[in-house]
């Protein structure tokens, strides 16, 4: 590790002001950023810790019935408190291991947008709204490719609002060493349709499987997926699995998620 200054603001306004300093970087739970610093892949001179900001923590219900999660809320707290959205709580309970779940944050996960992270799939399948210090961004507009989002450099994710579906489930095929999803699928059934979001599979990052959504809207059962398939051409291919294997897993995980939700 190298020397850097740590700033611990107690309000969103103070955090935003601190980010205007040259070479400053926001720090959530640090589950991705700290290893990146150790490898010198990033070397900010100032880290702005967001974990001490009370207004960015906690889980509550909005007047419209959405589950609202503060950007600095840990995965473990979501698992305990997001009881109004069982599919989201269950997903959070399976992220990493206890150490990761008690340090990692919702905002940090979504800001990093790792191609194998779980929260991007949950946000996209839920049709969530990402709230920052300056605006609101629909999940469909937020994710813009691997490690790429609609966030500007001076934006902080302060809250995420998850509409609660009628039925939902997140199913993932775990990479044993990292606990990331080799392939993860979140299925969410709403009154007006079904949303299916896939993580871990595509070179483009998290994506919606529109063909499966249409089939499941007509028949919410795994049988509706029987004639569907995905190409492995644009899927991630590495030592853990080929693109064709990941494409196959997407269909399998989607079917399991539907069965569990139904």
Features:
262 residues, alpha+beta, Uridine Diphospho-n-acetylenolpyruvylglucosamine Reductase, domain 2, Uridine Diphospho-n-acetylenolpyruvylglucosamine Reductase, domain 3, Enolase-like, domain 1, 4-stranded antiparallel β-sheet, 31% helix, 22% strand
Question: What is this entry, summarized?
Answer:
With 262 residues, this protein is of the alpha+beta class.
What does this structure look like?
With 262 residues, the protein is of the alpha+beta class. The protein has 3 domains: 5-49, 2-Layer Sandwich (Uridine Diphospho-n-acetylenolpyruvylglucosamine Reductase, domain 2), CATH 3.30.43.10; 59-162, Uridine Diphospho-n-acetylenolpyruvylglucosamine Reductase, domain 3, CATH 3.30.465.10; 167-261, Enolase-like, domain 1 (2-Layer Sandwich). The chain is built from 10 helices and 12 strands. It has helices spanning 12-19, 33-38, 75-81, 86-93, 98-101, 106-112, 119-126, 139-142, 210-218, 243-261, and strands spanning 5-7, 24-27, 46-49, 59-61, 67-70, 129-132, 136-138, 157-162, 167-174, 181-190, 193-199, 207-208. The strands form 3 sheets. Strands 4-5-8-6-7 form a 5-stranded antiparallel β-sheet. Helix 3 (75-81) runs antiparallel to helix 4. The longest helix has 19 residues, at 243-261. The radius of gyration is 18 Å and the shape is globular. The termini are far apart.
